Amino acid sequence: MDPTISVSKGCFVYKNGATRANKKEPSKRKRSGPAATSSLLGKEITTQPFYAAYSDCWKQLHEHIQQLQMTSNARTLEQLVEFVGIEGHCRLDEVLPTAALLTGINQPDHLKQFETLTQRLHLQRVGRVSVLQSRDCATLKAAIESMVYSLMYDLSAMPEMDEEEADEGERDRKRLRRTQCTLKQLHAWYSNNFGGAGKQRALVIVLPDFECFNANVLQDFILILSAQCERLPFVLILGVATAMTTVHSTLPYHVSSKIKLRVFQTQAAPTGLNEVLDKVLLSPKYAFHLSGKAFKFLTHIFLYYDFSIQGFIQGFKYCLMEHYFAGNAFALCTGYSQALGRIKQLSHEDMETIRRLPSFRPYVEQINDCKRIIAVLTDDEYLKKKLPQLLRDCLLHFMLFRCSLEFFTELVGDLPRCPLGKLHRELYVNCLNKPISQQAEYKECWQILSFMSKEAFVAKLSKCISCTEHFLSEQIAPLELGDACAEVMRAELQTLKTLLNDVELATLEQQPHVNSESHLSSDARALTDLTQVASRQELKAQLLQRSKQDKQQSTSEYARALTKILAHIEEQLVLKHLRPLQQAPPLHELYVFTDIATVRRNIIGAPRAALHTALNNPHFYMQCKCCELQDQTQLVGTMPDLSVVYKLHLECGRMINLFDWLQAFRSVLRSADEQENAEVSQEHIDPQIQARFTRAVAELQFLGYIKMSKRKTDHATRLTW
Amino acid sequence: MEQICGAVEPLFPCREASIRTLCELIGHCNEAYPPAIYIFGHSGTGKTSLTKAILQQCERQQKVRTVQLNAIECYTTKILLENVLDALAPEEQQPAESLVADNMLEFVEQLRRWHGKSARGFLIAVDNAERLRDMDANVLPVLLRLQQLTGLNICVLLLSQLPFEKYYNKTGLSEIIPVHLAQYNKTETLRILSSDFDQLKRQLQLQLDGDRLAICEQSLTPEFYSNYLNLFLSVFYKACRDVPELRLTARKCFAVYMEPVLDGSVECTDVSRLWRHIAGPLRSALTQIYLRVEKPLGEPDIEDQSVRRLAQSLELPYYGKFLLIAAFLASHNSAKQDKRLFVKHHGKQRKRMQTVNARAKNAEKMSTTLGPKSFSIDRLLAIFYAILDEKVGLTCNLLSQISTLVHLKLLAFVSGEQNIMDGSAKLQCTVGLEFVLYIGKVVGFNVRQYLCDFM
Questions:
Q1: Confidence band of A167 (pLDDT split at 50, 70, 90)
Q2: B423–A144: do the CB atoms touch at under 8 Å?
Q3: Average model confidence (pLDDT) for chain A?
Q4: Where's the Origin recognition complex subunit 3 N-terminal domain (chain A) (predicted)?
Q5: Which residues between 50 and 109 in chain B have a beta carbon less than 8 angstroms from any beta carbon of chain A?
């Protein structure tokens, strides 16, 4: 610390440009960032093979997701950029061109979308952009100032300036103070930089969270912009989270008549998610898979809580990290050839990890040679030799699973009422969780399928087949092991085709039984029988029998072919490939993430529950010996005071008498060391205990559990239940 | 003065009297101006454009310095003063010289210093003058007495929609000359709108070609157009008297009106058939007036105002929907009834004659029609858990949904926004019954069943 000549104590400001240096530094660091290590983790972790596998996998996935989102948003963005390009000129009437972008309810997610829009506008040199968030615009003054400031000193626009523009930029280098940022300044700046003909650029104002703006500020802001429209080519972009009616209800007529509104629709969040799931997470390209439960958990958060795709991706990333960080053995969770290379690097511990996997045991049990069992369990080298085959089986299984899922989705996805769900993700979860053929919904599907008309069924099945073939050639074929998978699958499809051909050729006519004569005679006999029934019961029995006979006879050739093909599908595709996780080949744990409990604990914050555990059972977090509890409700004097007070207050009703509370507190403490304090009188309270009690109550109040009552003296009100 | 009148009058039909009054007041720059003029009238009566035209003419013909301001832009007094100074600076003044006026005194001094000796006229027009009332207390009085304070031949024109009585305050204001621009009546509106005819015709002729151009030439007569305007005004005049707005809509609808004539399917004299064609579009245009929603070409009509569509198109997470329903129930049931509504074994309700009578009397005072009451977050969560079948943990994700709903303006804070932590914050639900009924239908929950009003 620098010495001062002052005798008084205090903080002193030194004018040595320290703040300026600080401001410059981060930007430099940011630029050199990617070159240096961007990870928080030390070298000892980043050099491990599992980390390499993890970062590899995440990089691929991340790029894929980003590319996907780019393309799905591309159309709207193109339209918006085009709109800005067309409207971004000065006009004579005071009408402000405005684009309303219906984004969807998760506002933080959409900030990113506006970022890409900004980048695009800069890239195409259409305009300068200022993104105004509602928190910066509490008053009109603040709104205008931050708008002008960000338009004039738009950092993201700086790098793309040419030389000629750069020296113009130099002219404004002398930065303005916030309060000097007025429209007059903006006007001067604009005519300085873009005044010339052909250099005109639109000034784009983006309000990403329209709903959060103060209505009065917004109205005045729009009126000002529209009044300036003659001289400055403003374009307004509103990010509307709910619907257009909010725009109409926020802006009164005299404001809304000043804008020219054009509505743009973006992709709805659930469709966006489905796209990500179908194209990335369920892609056969990646070796990493989520188990049915983990998958359901993540989609559940999305659909039930927040509709945030970003949140979903982060959750998925967390699962990925959790999976790979379990050990170097999980470095094998990559493509086949890479995994082969990594097998050599595995140490003894890693092999032990593999042996401890739950699915390893069935594998060992099915070997019937004693010597080989011992070799597998003890000899690392022997197991390493065996590994490639096992991994290959696993990878192949997942590919076949994915192909069959494609077929199966097409088959049952559009049945009436969708008993099993109509999307890949629903079916994926269903198939992985439980043996699907035993579920009631599955049986319902099969029934519906068997009731379908011939044309519909044939059309459906041929569509399924062509879909799967398309999937094979598009997605599977380019992968390694893809040929092996495709070969198996094509063979299946071929048999299906021949069966389908049978179905197609089958006639719908009632096929009389082979021995029509006997059939006829029996028929005649039945007829005669009917005439001579004696009692009602007899008649009923006979009728029942006849109807049964009818059913058997009425099976047409088509129906028989149909049952045959359905049975084939069930046997060859569903039972063979769409197996649940429990029946997956050995070592599937290397590829599938199942540890849902950890993720749940770490992703979902439950502040109230955590606080309750901490106060109710401090041992859980402190791991101390003194306050181990046998029973959750137990009260021990050695626990922290706050915890004791909390537990006592749980026993009370809405109002808590402070004196009674104190007495209870004291008795709890005394029970801890009763030998010494046994003789202390009831009335006299040790001031130390009183002080401890007061402090604990104050802390409890600080935590928000109680409030001192104003109605009743010496009572506290409970705030939680 | 005559020249100014002559230049402005053709631009503003039906405003001859007002123009003449104004010109008499400020038309002679060599005579003393009145200190201040107050021009008022409803929106769309031509206050701003009329003033603008007159000031332009004055500047051009008599070399008067003029300023036009919009009071909304001047969110601080300083900006107002600097804008005036900026426009009134002497021509020989270097632009770089600082124009700092922190307060009224400096402003008046600066004006005196610059123009003390010249005998020129100065006109200052302030649009949306009602905003001046909310600015510093001295702004309005100084502007009204600027002539006296500076000793210059200066006149301030204030433009507003309010009558001047609304400006009076305790200290009083000096005299001002009011000029009222009355709203146009129907015939005047018709006259103004039909002055568009020539421009419209030229525009149409540019767009069309071949057969259609010939038909257009033949049928597009002033009578035809005024017929159309009569039809148009018969629908719109009740709803809107704002002339610019009417003009815009009239142009938009005229294309639709002309369409069958250009196609050759309807004779241009067959008014009743033309009316049948245009009635529908006119009515739909009436709902869109002032909204200025522009539809991109070739896209389906996404503008459907019905609540049903709105509720179905609003995508909320599953629990978000339930929270919204819970908020609605909390807002429209009294807390006393909660036990009866949401607890299974709530005991039997005793019926007293008193309550029965009270209820019968207040049948029309249903709480769903009285508007939402406030509720605490605890109560919201309690009802949420009561109406949800499954067990959900009280997690951050769930709690953040509440703030999301507040952001979307589906819920609103009534009080205690600052102290959410101590549980005293009160919320209310801002959506209507119909909306919630549809939301409930989407998630399969019967809202009506849980409303006291429908028991």
A1: very low
A2: no
A3: 80
A4: 3-332
A5: 70, 72-73, 75-76, 79, 82-83, 86
Tens-digit pLDDT profile for residues B10-24? 888 888 888 888 888
Distance between alpha carbon A516 and the CA centroid of its chain, in Å?
Answer: 64
Co-location of B37 and B91 in the same domain: yes
- Sequence letter at residue A528: T
Q: Per the CB < 8 Å rule, is A224 touching B316? A: no
pTM recorded for the entire structure: 0.80
Q: Nearest CA to CA, how far is A97 from chain B (Å)?
A: 10
For A555, the 3-state DSSP assignment is: coil
Minimal Cα distance from B245: which residue of A? A257
CATH of domain A607-672+684-718: 1.10.10
Q: Domain check: are B239 and B273 in the same one?
A: yes
Torsion (CA) B234, B238, B244, B246 in degrees, nearest 10: -30
Task: Tell me what pLDDT residue B39 has.
Answer: 92
**Contact call for B242 and A257, based on CB within 8 A:** yes
CB contact (8 A) between residue B245 and residue A704: no
CA distance A408 to A465: 10
| Residue B391 near chain A (CB below 8 Å) | no
- Mean pLDDT over the full length of chain B: 82
* Residue B409 belongs to some domain of the structure: yes
Of A139, A223, A303, the CB nearest to B72: A223
How crowded is residue A506: how many other Cβ atoms within 10 Å of its Cβ?
18
Among candidate residues A158, A152, B139, the one with its CA nearest the CA of residue A144? A152
Structural domain ending residue among the three candidates B280, B301, B322? B301
B window 228-247, beta carbon within 8 A of A: 242, 244-245
**From CA B71, how far away is CA A24, in angstroms rounded?**
40
Whether the per-residue pLDDT at B205 is higher than 70: the answer is yes
Is the same domain home to B295 and B327?
no
Tell me if chain A has a CB within 8 Å of the CB of B397: yes
In B204-302, at which residue ranges do the beta strands (DSSP E only) sit? 293-294
What are the residue boundaries of the structural domains of chain A, listed by start?
A: 54-154+179-192+200-267, 274-507+564-593, 607-672+684-718
Within 288-317 of B, beta carbons closer than 8 Å to A belong to 290-296, 302-303, 305, 310, 313-317
Partners of B123 in beta bridges: B66, B155
For A105, which of B43, B404, B422 is closest by C-beta distance? B404
At residue A318, the pLDDT reads 92
Specify which residues B375 forms β-bridges with.
Answer: B427
Per-residue pLDDT, averaged over B385-414, amounts to: 87
Q: How many residues does chain B have?
A: 455
Q: Is the pLDDT of residue B447 over 60?
A: yes
In this structure, chain A runs to a length of: 721
> Are both B444 and B317 inside the same structural domain?
yes
Question: Is A306 close to B396, i.e. CB distance below 8 A?
Answer: no
Residues B285 and B410 in one domain: no
**What letter does residue B298 receive in the DSSP assignment?**
T
Structural domain ending residue among the three candidates B152, B180, B208: B180
Q: Binning pLDDT at 50, 70 and 90, where does residue A17 land?
A: very low
Interface ipTM? 0.88
> Are the Cβ atoms of B295 and A263 closer than 8 angstroms?
yes
* Segment among A404-413, B89-98, B393-402 with least mean pLDDT: B89-98
Question: How many beta-carbon pairs below 8 A join chains A and B?
Answer: 128
Q: Same domain, yes or no, for B156 and B219?
A: no
Give start and end residues of each alpha helix (H) in A306-379. Answer: 309-324, 336-343, 348-356, 360-366, 370-378
- For chain B positions 408-447, those within 8 Å of chain A (CB to CB) are 408-410, 421-423
How many domains does chain B fold into? Answer: 3
Fold topology of A54-154+179-192+200-267: Rossmann fold (3.40.50)
* Range with lowest mean pLDDT among A440-454, A525-539, B235-249, B254-268: A525-539
Based on the fold, state whether residues B1 and B48 are members of the same structural domain: yes
| Domain assignment present for B263 | yes
